[in-house]
TrEMBL record:
GO terms for molecular function: 3'(2'),5'-bisphosphate nucleotidase activity; metal ion binding. Its EC number is 3.1.3.7. Keywords: Hydrolase, Magnesium, Metal-binding. It catalyses: adenosine 2',5'-bisphosphate + H2O = AMP + phosphate; 3'-phosphoadenylyl sulfate + H2O = adenosine 5'-phosphosulfate + phosphate; adenosine 3',5'-bisphosphate + H2O = AMP + phosphate. InterPro entries: DPNP (IPR006239), Inositol_monoP_metal-BS (IPR020583), Inositol_monoP_superfamily (IPR051090), Inositol_monophosphatase-like (IPR000760), Inositol_monophosphatase_CS (IPR020550). Mg(2+) binds at E68, D133, I135, D136, D294. It comes from Knufia fluminis. Its cofactor is Mg(2+). It comes from the Eukaryota. This is 3'(2'),5'-bisphosphate nucleotidase. It holds the Pfam family Inositol_P. GO terms for biological process: inositol phosphate metabolic process; phosphatidylinositol phosphate biosynthetic process; sulfate assimilation; tRNA decay.
Length: 354
C-alpha cells in the first residue's frame, strides 16, 4: 500500500484536531468561551492547525504545509494565545501509542505558535506539500452544524492522500442527507466520521471517536440511474455559491427534490458515500479564487469513490499552481456516470448569463 504512514499520520492528526474542535464547541456551549471572545472559531482554527502541523513536522520534517492560518495576530494577543494553549496542551488521543506517533503533545506555547506559522508554504508543482484547513465551514461549526477538518498531501502538485474529519455527520451511510444536523449532533452518539483516500486505492469511512480509530469500510458514490432522482447539495452561504443558478440547473436536469444545504467539505464526503449525489459550487463573484485547502481532500475522496470532480468548464481542479485554484472556476462533483450530463446543464445555464 502506498503512503501508508502518511495516511495514518493524517488520520490520527485530523482525529486529534477534531477532538479539539469539539472541546472548543463544548466550552462555548458552557459559556467558558463567550461570544465576547468572538473567537470560538479562531480558537479551534489555530489550535487544530497547531496540532496537525506539529504531527506532520514530527513525522515528515522536510514536508511543507499550506495552512489557512498564521500566528502573527496571536503573538500580539497574549490572552487569546494562552487560552488556545490551554486547550492544545491537553488535547490527546485516547490511544497512547497513536499520540506517541504524532510526536506527543506540544511542549510549549511557543512551539504552538511556531507550528501554526509553519503553514506558510507557497504551494506549487514541486515536492511534498500538505494542504490544511483546520476548520472548514466556520458558520456551520458555530451553529453546531456541518464543518470539517481537512488535510491532503500533494506530491508534485497531485493529491495523493486526503482526509476529512466531519464531527457532525452521521455514522450511518444510509441516513438520508439532512440540512443542519443541529447542535444536538455535536458529540452525540451516532455522529462523527472520518473520510480518507489514497490515490489509486479507493476511499474509506470510519467512525470518528475520541481518537481510537478502528473499523470502517470502503465507500462509493451512488449509481444514479435516473438523474431526476438525484440529491443535490450546496453551500449554506449564498455568497459562496449561486443558489439561483443551482435551482435553474436542477430544473434543467428535472431534479425534483430540494437541494440539501450544508457548510464545508462535508458536501464532498456526502457525495463520496452516496448520501448526496451532485455538489455544485457556482461562482458568485467572478474574481474569487478558490483555496486549495478548501478542495484538495474532498476532490480526491470523491474521485476515489467513483466520482468525477471538475470545475464548471469541465477541467480538473489544478492544485499545482500555488495556494489558490486560480485556473479553475467553481466545482462540479458527481458520480462519474452522470458527470457529462450535469456539466452540460451547468454550461447551458451559465453561458446564457454571460
Ligand atoms: N466568494 C466566495 N466564493 C466561494 N467560496 C468562498 C467565497 N468566500 C469565501 N469562500 C470560502 O468558502 C468556504 C466555505 O465553503 P462552504 O460554503 O462550502 O462551506 C470557506 O473556506 C470560505 O473561505 P474563507 O474561510 O477564506 O472565508
Ligand atoms: Mg475553508
Amino acid at each position: 500500500m502506498a503512503f501508508e504512514k502518511e495516511l495514518k499520520v493524517a488520520q490520527l492528526a485530523v482525529a486529534r484536531a477534531s477532538i479539539l474542535t469539539k472541546s472548543v464547541f463544548a466550552e462555548k456551549a458552557k459559556g467558558t468561551i463567550s461570544k465576547e471572545d468572538k473567537s470560538p472559531v479562531t480558537i479551534g482554527d489555530y489550535g487544530a492547525q497547531a496540532l496537525i502541523i506539529a504531527a506532520i513536522k514530527h513525522n515528515f520534517p522536510e514536508d511543507e504545509v499550506v495552512g489557512e492560518e498564521e500566528a502573527s495576530t496571536l503573538r500580539e494577543q497574549k490572552e487569546l494565545s494562552s487560552k488556545i494553549w490551554n486547550l492544545v496542551k491537553d488535547t490527546k488521543l485516547s490511544d497512547e501509542d497513536s499520540d506517541t506517533m504524532l510526536g506527543g503533545p506540544l511542549k510549549t506555547e511557543d512551539d504552538m505558535l511556531n507550528a501554526i506559522d509553519a503553514g506558510n508554504s507557497a504551494g506549487g508543482a514541486k515536492g511534498r506539500i500538505w494542504a490544511l484547513d483546520p476548520i472548514d465551514g466556520t458558520k456551520g461549526f458555530l451553529r453546531g452544524g456541518q464543518y470539517a477538518v481537512c488535510l491532503a498531501l500533494m506530491v508534485d502538485g497531485d493529491v495523493k492522500v486526503g482526509v476529512l474529519g466531519c464531527p457532525n455527520l452521521p455514522i450511518d451511510d444510509s441516513e438520508p442527507l439532512k440540512e443542519d444536523m443541529g447542535a444536538a449532533a455535536t458529540d452525540k452518539e451516532g455522529y462523527g466520521v472520518l473520510f480518507s483516500a489514497v490515490q489509486g486505492e479507493g476511499a474509506r469511512i470510519q467512525p470518528l471517536t475520541r481518537g481510537a480509530l478502528s473499523g470502517g469500510h470502503s465507500i462509493s458514490v451512488k449509481k444514479v440511474t435516473d438523474v431526476t432522482q438525484a440529491v443535490m447539495c450546496e453551500s449554506v452561504e449564498a455568497g459562496h455559491s449561486s443558489k439561483g443558478d443551482n435551482a435553474e440547473i436542477a430544473q434543467k436536469l428535472g431534479v425534483t427534490g430540494k437541494p440539501v444545504q450544508m457548510d464545508s467539505q462535508a458536501k464532498y464526503g456526502s457525495v463520496a458515500r452516496g448520501a448526496g449525489d451532485i455538489y455544485l459550487r457556482l461562482p458568485v463573484r467572478k474574481d474569487y479564487q478558490e483555496k486549495i485547502w478548501d478542495h484538495a481532500a474532498g476532490d480526491l475522496i470523491v474521485r476515489e469513490a467513483g466520482g468525477q470532480v471538475t470545475d464548471i468548464h469541465g477541467n480538473r481542479l489544478n492544485f499545482s499552481i500555488g495556494r489558490t485554484l486560480r485556473d479553475n472556476k467553481g466545482v462540479v462533483a458527481t458520480p462519474a456516470n452522470i458527470h457529462a450530463q450535469v456539466l452540460k446543464a451547468v454550461g447551458e445555464v451559465l453561458s446564457a448569463k454571460i
